[in-house]
TrEMBL record:
This is rRNA-processing protein EFG1. One of its GO terms (biological process) is maturation of SSU-rRNA from tricistronic rRNA transcript (SSU-rRNA, 5.8S rRNA, LSU-rRNA). Signal peptide: none annotated. PANTHER family: RRNA-PROCESSING PROTEIN EFG1. It is found in: Nucleus, Nucleolus.
Length: 102
């Protein structure tokens, strides 16, 4: 025996209709709350991944800078930037301005 069937048997028509409307409203609110919770969970995961990717790029950039600094001490006439460093900076800038959602 379902909840709505019990309502039909025991309540007057106007009370039953009001209760059914309230039940539908509460079910819709529950669905919205569940959807909001799912969206929040996905957003938090996305932000965490974005942070870790940015940290990884910044770590690699600093590492290459240190290597270049050591190279420039040994060979002062080389003034060019590493291609990887330029790529890393571009990726970092792209990650900050246009994050990859998927």
């Amino acid at each position: 025996m379902s909840y709505t069937h019990t309502l039909t048997m025991t309540l007057a028509a106007d009370v039953r209709v009001a209760t059914e409307h309230r039940l539908k409203s509460l079910e819709a609110d529950l669905t919205k709350a569940e959807q909001a919770h799912i969206e929040h969970t996905i957003a938090a995961r996305y932000h965490k991944v974005k942070l870790l990717e940015r940290q990884k790029l910044l770590r690699k950039t600093t590492q290459v800078k240190r290597q270049l600094k050591g190279t420039r001490k040994s060979y002062p006439h080389t003034n060019s930037c590493s291609p990887w460093l330029l790529t890393s900076r571009t990726q970092t800038q792209r990650e900050w301005t246009h994050p990859n959602i998927y």
